[in-house]
Amino acid sequence: MASAAALLPNVERQRARFRFVLPLIALLALVGFVTVRGNGVATAADTQAQAEQYVRLALALDRLHDGEVDGWFGPALPDQPDPAIPHDPDGLDRAVTRLAASLATPGKGADEERRVHLRILVRRLTGVMTIIGNSPSDDFYREAAHIYGLAEPTDAEAAHWKEARTQLDALLPGEGPLVARLEKFRSRFIVPLDSREALFTQALAECRARTLAQWKLPAEERLDLVWTAAVPAAWHRYEGNLRSVLRINRQALALPGQAMDLACHEAYPGHHAQFVLADAAAGPGGLPVEDRLTLLRSPESVIREGAADFGVELVFPSGERIAFLRDTLFPLAGLDPADAPLYARIEALERTASGMSLPILARYRDGTLSRAAAAAALADEALVASPAALLDFTDRYGAYVTGYTLARDRVRSGLTRNCGGSPWEPLRALVEQPRAPPPYVLAAGFAVPSS
Questions:
Q1: Closest Cα partner for 247 from 257, 262, 268?
Q2: Which superkingdom heads the taxonomic lineage of this protein's source (predicted)?
Q3: Spatial distance between the Cα atoms of 437 and 431, rounded to a whole number of angstroms
Q4: How far apart (Å, rounded) are the C-alpha atoms in residues 37 and 14?
Q5: Of 151, 207, 302, 306, which shows the fewest CB atoms inside 10 Å?
Q6: How far apart are CA 182 and CA 6, in angstroms?
Q7: 387, 401 contact by CB (below 8 A)
Q8: Contact assessment for residue 177 and residue 168, using Cβ atoms and an 8 Å cutoff
Q9: Strand partners, 226
Q10: Which of 281 and 451 is assigned the larger pLDDT?
Q11: Do residues 384 and 357 make contact, with C-beta atoms less than 8 angstroms apart?
């Protein structure tokens, strides 16, 4: 969804990554109930039909509430004999309930393992529908744990965010609020509009080369770029068969670091590489139909975001990031290379300090902080450039916003502190199977979701 730089202040870019119009939905007919054989044991054909039904129901939810499906790259599903499609939440709820009941019938062997996973997916779908239908949660962090498996921030994490803000304050002396001083600093590094494609192309090539030095990707993988003003920022869509399309708005690349962050996060080793690896790891038949769809409000979606953000840091460790900015991107943008070290330091601290937004959003979502007070605190304390946009995002998606800071930090912690050696291989294992994060990631603060 988003690149790593200035993560929370750029909500429009974050949400834009993977939303798309669902052209298949008009072709999909829903049945109210999927039957199983009368002997009390489901067959593999039954399970396949129920998996397809789950996808239809999730796509129907996305039609009712745009954006709830984060990604879908499956084939057109077979037509169903019953043309009735739930056009209302109550009808959809009844259809999901019937599907859950039909999945209670056991299968055999590996098919039962698939059915267990389908039961989990249907429970999550039910949980998302409950959240949509209810008033805002009275416990922001409980929702984060229940839906996404993200434990509440620790005191050490909060202190780390606060220290980053303190350092920013010291590095940007002057009059006025820190958020205004930060904006003034940023204005010195605006990339001319006619140079932004060149910067991104250079950054993308570098991200791909560095990723391929660590991971072997299928030779057939392909990422097609489309420059367009029709998207607010960056919009990645995995289309299956190892191919993605990335649509980019030049306005999203105002700063040189954004070209690096977006190229890594959306492409290599981020979302494009993630889906390519997961698809390839599934074998010749690819992923099962239910795993070709990702709900936005799911642990897998949040893990992919955190992994994509951590991938930016892996591709460009601090010193190498400075060198690439200084030697390649700053000259292309007509900026003074001597300013690259300070620029990189400020953007890194800003990225860390963005975590201070979470306690503010939690109090806002829990009803103990007014919208006006929350907006002021987001600007003054968390240095959010667009508080209203972030609050609107939180109104719409609730605790999902935790994924833009906590997920990044937890993935980093899990892969660097607990597995030993280079993080590249454990990161690959994580993105190949995000639905089953390894123990060292769970230990870093990802809980097992109760959904």
A1: 262
A2: Bacteria
A3: 9
A4: 45
A5: 151
A6: 11
A7: no
A8: no
A9: 247
A10: 281
A11: yes
Q: How many Å apart are CA 371 and CA 373, to the nearest integer?
A: 5
Q: Is residue 381 pLDDT above 90, yes or no?
A: yes
- 7-to-305, 313, 388 alpha-carbon distances in Å: 11, 14, 15
By DSSP bridging, strand 243-248 and strand 234-240 are antiparallel
Q: Is 391 helix (H, G, I), strand (E, B) or coil?
A: helix
Which residues, 6 or more positions from 114, have their beta carbon under 8 angstroms from its beta carbon?
47, 51, 107, 288
Q: Which amino acid is at 222?
A: R
Question: What is the predicted pLDDT for the residue at 405?
Answer: 84
Q: Which amino acid belongs to residue 204? A: L
pLDDT > 60? residue 330: yes
Please state, in angstroms and rounded to a whole number, the distance separating the CA atoms of residues 445 and 149.
8
Secondary structure (DSSP) of 403-428: GGTHHHHHHHHHHHHSS-S-SHHHHH
pLDDT at 273 over 90: yes
Tell me the CA end-to-end span of the chain in Å, nearest whole number: 23
**Cα distances (Å, whole numbers) of residue 102 to 69, 77, 107, 126, 393:** 23, 19, 11, 15, 35
Give the C-alpha separation, 432 to 216, whole Å. 13
Q: Do 103 and 111 touch, CB atoms closer than 8 A?
A: no
Residue 305 in contact with residue 138, Cβ under 8 Å? no
In the block, tokens 């109760």 appear at 450
Residue 159 near residue 228 (C-beta atoms within 8 A): no
Tell the residue number behind the tokens 């054909």, with chain if given. Answer: 45
- How many alpha carbons fall within 13 Å on the CB side of residue 146? 16
Residue type, 332: L
Nearest one of 108, 104, 110, 114 to 52, comparing CA atoms: 114
The whole-angstrom distance between residue 56's C-alpha and the CA centroid of its chain comes to 22
